[in-house]
Amino acid sequence: MSKVMTAQRLHDGIVVFWRDGEWTESVLDATPLDEAAVEMAMAEGRADQAENLVIDVGLIDVQLQADKPVPTRRRERLRALGPSVRADLVRAQDMEI
Amino acid sequence: MALFTPEGLVEDQAIRVDDEAPLPKEGLVMVSVARWFDAAKEEPGRIRGLVLRTDDPVDGLPPDLDRIEFEVERFTDGRVFTQARLLRRRHGFRGVISVTGPFLPDQAAHLFRCGVDAIVVPDDVDPEPWARTVARFPRYYQSAARGVGVRI
Amino acid sequence: MYQYDAIDQEIVDARVEEYRDQVARRLSGALTEEEFRPLRLMNGLYLQLHGYMLRVAIPYGTLSSRQLRALAEISRRYDKGYGHFTTRQNIQFNWPKLVETPDLLADLAKVEMHAIQTSGNCIRNVTTDPFAGAAADEVEDPRITCEIIRQWSTLHPEFAFLPRKFKIAVTASPHDRAAIAVHDIGVRVVDDPEEGPGFEIWAGGGQGRAAYLAALVRRFLPRARLLSYLEAIMRVYNRYGRRDNKYKARIKILVNSMGAEAFTEEVEREWQQILAEEAPVDVPQGEWDRVGAFFDLELPPAQEAEADDTHPGFARWRDVNVVPHRRAVYANVVISLKPRGGIPGDASASQMEGVAELADRFGQSEIRVTHQQNLVLPHVRRRDLSALHRALVELDLATANLDQASDIIACPGMDYCTLANARSIPIAQSISARFDESREAEIGKLNIKISGCINACGHHHVGHIGILGIDKRGEESYQLAIGGSHDENAALAKVLGRAISAEEVPAAIDAIIEVWMGHRLEGETLPRTVQRVGLVPFKEKVYGFVHA
Predict the structure, then answer these.
(1) How far is C179 from chain B (nearest CA, A)?
(2) Do strands B14-16 and B28-32 pair parallel, antiparallel, or not at all (unpaired)?
(3) Are C429 and A12 inside 8 Å of each other by CB?
(4) Nearest-neighbour CA in chain B from C68: distance (Å)
(5) In Å, what is the CA distance from C297 to each residue of B4, C304, C411?
(6) What is the ipTM of this complex?
């Protein structure tokens, strides 16, 4: 199973995902990481945390759907998408809760 | 180490002696409560301060010590505020009350209000954030061990 | 209502600047997240599932129309145009940016508001009866006591780092609308025929993991001694409350492990020592009088005639959402924030502004927030009720469902909260959408409460029907309990059986209601029926129905 690295930006709290050396707000744009890539990514994530750019750096499980990473756990899908009860605030319309 | 006090940074003269170590001949010698109870055997007059933990009671302590220090492992352990308050107000301790542990500058005002006189800080500490937080509130609602409240 | 003087304003302004300093130190890295967390929490700032969440204090649930307008403006400027009213009579904003929160707080301070001690292991915002000062059955306005407690607990130097959070509720009526039995300290204002004005003091109640009803620790406390007694309880808790396990750190665990009697003895001993000290903390009568004068509201005269109205929906709304006032020509109006199929407790910026406008037009420019997540307009002339109802219809705020099946309390659940194991709001929506006015009229009063985890922010332990979201092998599942109550007959709901899926919940609720209606005696509430007939008929119907 692939993983995606995630965190929250310190200055505004927004949930972000790791895409090849930068943070993106959409999980669908994130880079799926295999076991070998996880360690390198986490080292960079922790460095950003130490720089006070992000907080709560961690990994979540994803499944690839049409080559896009979609979190497997519901909590992580909600976190990536926004509240399921506010259709107007959902971030990625083409992903299901 | 240094001491941050309401008047600013001063040198910490305490000599904290482990339970097993020999007592120095001079200076502000401080020991644990356990050692103090044995102190009668080893020149009690030389001990001038005690180091307490946050679960130690504060009644029945010798009144004529120069200093009592509370050693705190986590800055969120709020028992020390009550201990200081009781030691100062209820038990009338007149010596210096100090605290040592990973305190934040933001706690200094509350510590002082509860009767603490000095916070142990690293020698190279920047006293500015500490001084800022102590000067922040011109008044408080409630009276405390140090300071009179505006309402209560 | 209470108005700040220079001292109150100075303290709140200084707190904003202190917080601004803390945020700057965090952003610069001078504070680590671990160090910053308790500091930001003590100012109401959480890091939630989607971002920061700021909980703003609405002291004892009372707002002026000016304050409500400011909250609306803040929700537009710093958030996404809405706010969520909570079971602790506060309001939460779900999307503020850390960098902007100091400015948000400065804007709040301009209207005498703050987020001080709305979270963290300290004494939280004190809550009370939403009909305070307007209820027919109160001894005196409980907000006088609340304001005294607010001031005493604000930046109290000794109790800022308690073992765990600490919640105090005050009621001044025999009918308890403040749920004092499930608070760390419950205060009941009394006027004893022999002893005079004073308080009954309860301690050790609470919901969450291991729910307890509070124990009576003092039958009568003279009014003058309130704060010294509270201080005695706080000190016993601060010294002896557990700090090794956050799940066992609430005062309810201390009270129940020591035993209520031993706990009370310890408190009384501490109190006697406080009284023996020089200048024990207590409020002089002059301060009681000063604060009391703010709540001494003189209502303008009103005619008795009640306008007859055939406007659709008015009669039912008046029967359900209008609560008696201490003066017969006046009424208290509950504005439901529970639209059928909607999100419990949410209000948009324009709804907030609309309510503020109505408070100016029909009330005394005052609004209350209830622990059931609704709003109240107190002091409305009865003759204005029909005009007010029409105006509420325009704002989509005229749902006639106070204390009905669709008046559901729900925590934000997994849609917003990092602690939740399951969603709460969609469950509330799926239930409330099934009830219309005529069905509710047949059913009568029914409180359904939903929490997304065992922390019980949705008060499921004291719901007539309590629903608890759990995670069962990765699936959102819901445990049902029945027979709870939060008033003066407080009782904890009993678990019905195994947890069920989200899809099964509405039918299970129907089944419970059907059994209750089949068994109930005239005027009997669901908790009473459960007490009388037991759980078995409910179990049979619910689990029989679900697994037909």
Answers:
(1) 28
(2) parallel
(3) no
(4) 26
(5) 49, 20, 34
(6) 0.96
